[in-house]
Each structure stands twice: as C-alpha cells, then as structure tokens.
Design goal:
It contains 2 helices and 3 strands, in the order E-E-H-E-H. The protein has helices spanning 30-34, 45-102, and strands spanning 19-21, 26-28, 42-44.
Length: 103
C-alpha cells in the first residue's frame, strides 16, 4: 500500500528501500544500512510510517483542541465586548442625566 516501499536504492539496483535510518531520517536498503548507515539506528520503513502517522494524528488532535479553545476565547471576548458596550451606554446615560441636572 505504500508506493515508495518498492522503490529501488539509488546505490544498489537490486535492493529496495525497506529500512529507515532514524539518524538521517531517510529510507535505506539493507546494504546501505550495513555500509554508510552502519552505526545508525534503523528499523522497518513500515514501522516508521505507522509512527509518523500516529504523531501526525496526535498533532492534529492537539491542533483541534487548541482551535476549540481559541474559539471559546473569541466567544468569551465577544460577550465581554457586548457587556462593556452595554455598560458604556448606561454610563453615558448617567453622565447625560447628571449634566442635565446641573444646567
């Protein structure tokens, strides 16, 4: 199902990119994992895909929660704005009445 799992190594034509080098963050073939990535931690590409998908899903959930929180803050801000506006009208009216009494 993962199209690049069948991709061939650019250095070893007979090898597919079945492994993932965690240090270099690239897919590698078995031969490369023993040569140029010898001391690097590697695991199956399919395992990395699953891990990346889980991380993306978690990030998406966190973003959705942050979006919902921001929406609630904006609603609360609008409500506060309306209360302030109403209070301003009341205070303006009180000031006008006080000036009217002074005249």
């Amino acid at each position: 199902s993962f199209s690049f799992l069948s991709r061939k190594c650019q250095y070893h034509d007979d090898q597919t990119l079945d492994l993932y080098c965690q240090q270099c963050t690239i897919p590698v073939c078995v031969k490369c994992s023993g040569i140029s990535h010898k001391d690097h931690p590697v695991h199956q590409v399919s395992q990395q895909i699953i891990q990346n998908k889980e991380e993306i899903q978690q990030s998406l959930e966190e973003l959705q929660l942050a979006q919902e929180n921001l929406k609630n803050v904006m609603i609360a801000g609008e409500e506060m704005k309306e209360k302030i506006k109403a209070r301003k009208i009341e205070v303006d009216s009180i000031i006008r009445q006080a000036f009217a009494k002074l005249q």
